């Protein structure tokens, strides 16, 4: 593989999409659609311009950096003070809907793929549980949609990947240690160490780094340009420092962002600027790599069972748990269905599955599971990308924006 060719192609795709992005948006064609399509077009399944292996060092580094910055920025943009005022709906989705989704996903996977070990099925459910608000950007950014509904979808997307990742790490550690060693408590110590040290190191880096940034800026010691660069450096520092202290770097990046974004309004503003520009570029590059490297590798393993599970994952296995979790709220049926539908599978699933593939060394033995993730994400890119704006318009016409009631539930009827 010639990395320089890949980099040149990415630059050309960015230019092409950037010039006509607003025109394409009028037809509900999103960035993830375009970058995934170009990746697939240039892969061995298309023009075969270049070949990229899933476990290539170039791919691993790109994916790791993208995931670190996505976790950091997602966490930083979670306003804990605002969340305290209107936390009931996101809490229902995260602490009722999410566990039901994982359990249902594992159970149904066992029925469709009876030959797969339980831990593999659980890993599949975990890979497909995190949602990606970016694929339904029109919904979370359209002011016509009630603020509480937009916030609920956004907070769920921002937090569920951070909740799922430690569990996913646990499952991967169990698989790699071998079922014969399940009684050995070493893996449990390893996982707890990864989570604890990752959270401590990340929190310290985010808090102290942001405090130092404020101190230096107020005393006219910083050039303003670097306000957008400091968060990037803090995210990467948290990742590598945690790894050095036997913690998990991705968890560290999440906690660094959580503390950085909630330590300073100024810092959160600059992180948001980064997320809307450089961060979005990394996300789009990840979709390109997904189409270029991962899709061609896994498509040969797509079967009817894979397609059925992917369809269920995007519909019943997502929507029913959400509908159940929202029982007892004041939301009407249309609002519950609206929230339930907008659980796209995108960047988190892509990055997690690429990280898992790298940890496992190859896709051998996991072909069916990775094929399910591929088909689910491809379906989601199209279905949620094409439906976001039309459904946002439809919903907004029938539900006027309303502020949450004092109990935190939305009064939208």
UniProtKB/TrEMBL annotation:
<feature type="transmembrane region" description="Helical">
    <location>
        <begin position="338"/>
        <end position="357"/>
    </location>
</feature>
<dbReference type="GO" id="GO:1902600">
    <property type="term" value="P:proton transmembrane transport"/>
</dbReference>
<dbReference type="GO" id="GO:0005886">
    <property type="term" value="C:plasma membrane"/>
</dbReference>
<feature type="transmembrane region" description="Helical">
    <location>
        <begin position="119"/>
        <end position="140"/>
    </location>
</feature>
<feature type="transmembrane region" description="Helical">
    <location>
        <begin position="307"/>
        <end position="326"/>
    </location>
</feature>
<keyword id="KW-0050">Antiport</keyword>
<feature type="transmembrane region" description="Helical">
    <location>
        <begin position="221"/>
        <end position="239"/>
    </location>
</feature>
<keyword id="KW-0812">Transmembrane</keyword>
<dbReference type="GO" id="GO:0015297">
    <property type="term" value="F:antiporter activity"/>
</dbReference>
<protein>
    <submittedName>
        <fullName>Sodium/hydrogen exchanger</fullName>
    </submittedName>
</protein>
<keyword id="KW-0813">Transport</keyword>
<feature type="transmembrane region" description="Helical">
    <location>
        <begin position="6"/>
        <end position="25"/>
    </location>
</feature>
<feature type="transmembrane region" description="Helical">
    <location>
        <begin position="161"/>
        <end position="179"/>
    </location>
</feature>
<keyword id="KW-0406">Ion transport</keyword>
<dbReference type="Pfam" id="PF00999">
    <property type="entry name" value="Na_H_Exchanger"/>
</dbReference>
<feature type="transmembrane region" description="Helical">
    <location>
        <begin position="191"/>
        <end position="209"/>
    </location>
</feature>
<feature type="transmembrane region" description="Helical">
    <location>
        <begin position="58"/>
        <end position="80"/>
    </location>
</feature>
<keyword id="KW-1133">Transmembrane helix</keyword>
<feature type="transmembrane region" description="Helical">
    <location>
        <begin position="369"/>
        <end position="388"/>
    </location>
</feature>
<feature type="transmembrane region" description="Helical">
    <location>
        <begin position="92"/>
        <end position="113"/>
    </location>
</feature>
<feature type="domain" description="Cation/H+ exchanger transmembrane">
    <location>
        <begin position="14"/>
        <end position="394"/>
    </location>
</feature>
<dbReference type="InterPro" id="IPR006153">
    <property type="entry name" value="Cation/H_exchanger_TM"/>
</dbReference>
<feature type="transmembrane region" description="Helical">
    <location>
        <begin position="281"/>
        <end position="301"/>
    </location>
</feature>
<keyword id="KW-0472">Membrane</keyword>
């Amino acid at each position: 593989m010639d990395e320089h060719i890949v980099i040149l192609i990415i630059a050309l795709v960015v230019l092409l999409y950037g010039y006509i992005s607003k025109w394409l948006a009028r037809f509900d064609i999103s960035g993830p659609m375009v970058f995934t399509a170009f990746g697939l077009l240039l892969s061995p399944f298309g023009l075969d311009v270049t070949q990229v292996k899933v476990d290539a060092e170039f791919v691993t580094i790109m994916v790791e950096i993208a995931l670190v910055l996505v976790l950091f920025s997602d966490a930083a943009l979670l306003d804990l003070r605002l969340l305290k005022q209107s936390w009931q709906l996101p809490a229902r989705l995260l602490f009722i809907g999410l566990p039901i989704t994982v359990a249902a996903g594992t159970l149904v996977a066992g029925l469709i793929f009876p030959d797969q070990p339980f831990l593999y099925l659980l890993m599949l459910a975990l890979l497909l549980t995190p949602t990606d608000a970016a694929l339904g950007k029109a919904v979370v950014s359209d002011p016509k949609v009630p603020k509480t509904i937009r916030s609920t979808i956004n907070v769920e997307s921002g937090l569920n990947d951070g909740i799922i990742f430690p569990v996913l790490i646990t499952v991967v550690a169990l698989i790699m240690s071998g079922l014969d060693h399940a009684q050995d408590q070493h893996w449990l110590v390893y996982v707890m160490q990864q989570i604890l040290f990752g959270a401590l190191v990340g929190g310290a880096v985010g808090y102290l780094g942001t405090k130092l940034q404020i101190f230096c800026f107020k005393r006219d010691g910083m050039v303003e340009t670097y306000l957008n660069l400091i968060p990037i450096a803090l995210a990467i520092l948290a990742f590598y420092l945690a790894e050095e202290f036997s913690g998990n770097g991705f968890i560290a990046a999440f906690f660094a962002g959580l503390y950085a974004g909630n330590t300073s309004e100024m810092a959160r503003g600059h992180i948001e600027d980064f997320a809307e520009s450089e961060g979005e570029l990394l996300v789009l590059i990840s979709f390109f790599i997904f189409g270029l490297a991962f899709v061609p590798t896994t498509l040969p393993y797509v079967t009817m069972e894979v397609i059925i599970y992917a369809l269920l994952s995007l519909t019943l296995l997502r929507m029913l748990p959400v509908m159940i979790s929202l029982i007892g709220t004041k939301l009407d049926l249309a609002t519950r269905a609206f929230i339930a539908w907008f659980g796209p599978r995108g960047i988190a699933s892509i990055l997690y599955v690429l990280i898992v593939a790298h940890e496992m060394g190859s896709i051998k033995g996991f072909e069916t599971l990775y094929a399910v993730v591929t088909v689910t994400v491809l379906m989601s890119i199209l279905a949620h990308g094409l439906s976001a704006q039309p459904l946002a318009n439809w919903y907004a016409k029938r539900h006027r924006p309303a502020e949450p009631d004092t109990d935190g539930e939305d009064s939208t009827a």
